[in-house]
Amino acid sequence: MSLAVTLASTSKSRRALLAAAGVEADGVAPNVDEESFRNTMRANKLPVREQAMQLAELKAMRVSAKRPGLVIGGDQMLALGDEAFDKPADLEAAKNHLRQLSGKSHTLETAIVICEDGAPIWRHLARPKLTMRPLTEDFIETYVSSCGDALLSTVGAYQLEGPGAQLFTRIEGDYFSILGLPLLPLLDYLRIRKVLPT
After folding, report:
1. Which domain covers residue 134, as residue numbers?
2. Each residue of 148-181: pLDDT tens digit?
3. For residue 119, which of 17, 53, 56, 71 sits 20 to 30 Å off, Cα-Cα?
4. How many structural domains does the chain have?
5. Torsion of CA 151, 155, 160, 161, to 10 degrees
6. Which segments of the chain does DSSP mark as H helices, in order?
7. What pTM was computed for the model?
8. Are 144 and 99 in contact, with CB atoms under 8 Å apart?
9. CATH number of 94's domain
10. 5 in helix, strand or coil?
11. Residue 11 covered by a domain
């Protein structure tokens, strides 16, 4: 019998990535106060990549304490230098994100942790680097207006799988990690655990 797989998230995009790759996983909300946890980590001056990893672990542990099998927790944070970006609260904040990122390179700290029986057993951190072209104010206004509230669900106020591709001059790292799930290393681990065929 194969191990059950649960995604400690209600993220439609992460579930869709897993399903498209042939991984059946239930999505369960981890019920974590992410904002409070992030504020504590930032007050302690943890590097952005460590913040993402700890939040991914917390999500997986919370759900794993109540669910059998393997529980996948994930988190993605955008780092511009040492500064962490959160999902924009509204469209004006999305515009400000884009203004700050314009003409610069940033990293998407994309962490996943797998827990079993309430304890972490596997971790992976992907760090795709994206370079945004210089954006004009007119472009930012038009882009945000046309994409609308969809931009509020991403840390960078862009969706690479759509018109957000127009924002970049260079991308280093794998596509799945940019979308929020380092899928290839995850699939490797699931094969090791015999969740997927080898």
Report:
1. 5-192
2. 999 999 999 998 888 999 999 999 999 999 999 9
3. 17
4. 1
5. -70
6. 12-20, 34-43, 48-64, 91-101, 137-147, 175-178, 183-192
7. 0.93
8. no
9. 3.90.950.10
10. strand
11. yes
Active site residue 75: yes
Pair of tokens at residue 195: 């969740």
To which residue do tokens 């579930």 refer? 15
- Would residue 198 count as lying in a domain? no
Tell me how far apart the alpha carbons of residues 60 and 171 are, in angstroms, rounded to a whole number. 29
Name 7's Cβ contacts closer than 8 Å, sequence gap at least 6. 14, 15, 18, 25, 26, 27, 28, 71, 72, 74
In a domain, 170, yes or no: yes
Among the options 33, 75, 138, 149, which is catalytic?
75
| pLDDT tens-digit map of 115-127 | 999 999 999 999 9
Burial (CB count within 10 angstroms: exposed 0-12, middle 13-18, buried 19+), residue 114: buried
Q: What are 112's two structure tokens?
A: 């996943």
The answer to whether residue 187 is domain-embedded is yes
